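Form 12-C: Joint structure prediction
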Amino acid sequence: MNELERIDDYFSGRMTAPERTAFEADLQSDPGLADTTAFYLMTRRAANAESREQRRAEWVTRQNTTPTPTRRLGIWAYASAAAACLLLILGIGWYIRQQNSQPTATALAEAYINRNFSDLGQAMGGTSDSLSMGKAAYNAGKFAEAGALFTAVLQREPDNPDALTFAGIVSLRTEKYDQAIGYFNRLSLLPVYPNTGTFYEALAHLKRNQPMDKNQAEKLLQTVIDKNLAGKKEAEELINAL
Amino acid sequence: MGLFSSQFPDQAIIDGIKAGGTRRRQCETVLFDRYYYLVRDGSRKHKLSGEECASAYTDTILSVIDQIIADRFEGRSGLKTYVYQIFNNKCVDLIRKNATNRGSVHNTLSLDDTILQVPDEARPAIQRLMDQYEAELLQQRIRLLSEKCREMLLAWAEGYTDEEIAGRQGYNSSDVAKTSRLRCMERLRDFYRGKKP
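Section 2 - Result
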């Protein structure tokens, strides 16, 4: 058995107790054995350092050739994120579907106004009374002038249903909704047939679109339907959209 | 990747490293990859360069592997906490090293406690003799050995048994592997003393 093998057996625990004792005694008395032991231990240390350098080099190559891994997330984190995304997509889809499939009551009211109030028609025979002049001004897009003419008529005849209707429509088109609601409310109280006052007042509330306007419009539309007033068919459409 | 890495719980990595062989290598790589994001975090937190942090991280993983093999990782904390603490300490060491320019602070050489087996009365003399050897020269000479010899010595220094080395390198028995390893050491000694390879 050469020195190195004996040293290896000692450090690997392959010696019996007497052999160990003998080796330890020789270690102190035999300089050659002591030197070889030092070499053995230094070789182990140097080989370990070399091994670590190799591992380090392998990992550096790995870092350069593979993408940087991100922080590890648990499966629940992925599941929660997926569920949140799904809910968000469903929510957006539902919202878009609602928006596309059913126009809002305000949009319906606006469509009605654009369709029916773009022209007030012309008085038969081309008369030159204030109402006719007001309608002509309105049809020409001169809303301020038309409004002044209808107001002048109302000063003379406060319960003139045509003047109230036209003044209300002018106010509606010029976005003076408070005024429009006032005119149409007055119209609704008049004993005329057909009376569009309640329906038009509901339209004005929908266009104003303030916090309580929707409720108010709903009540008025319900009245139109219940009492079979002018605009019942349109009122039914609008109330469904509310 | 996160989903798949969860297939390797801490204990599987520890067991794999202790098992040795190919499994050990795989588990070391899994361990290295798993917490590599600490490099980015460390760089931001300690204001060190990415390269410095990557080096500190590599040393961290090597230390953790050493601790696992030496049964010094007792599992009182999770592997992540353990890695994080060592990495943090290494980063602080690096900052000190940068501030004081003392390279010795960042000593990455593995602590080999084999010498502790030597009886107390003989140890100082052996240590003095060891100090006379040039570790760096010895390491250079290891690189001059044949590939088979080099691999054998590195595996032995990493703690592989002769039986495992025999299995890895295709020797018939652990005795043959041991004899070959000791011959390689003799050759290394010759190289170290100046004999040409």
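Section 3 - Comments
Chain A is about 75% helix and 0% strand. Residues 140 and 168 of chain A are 17 Å apart (CA to CA).
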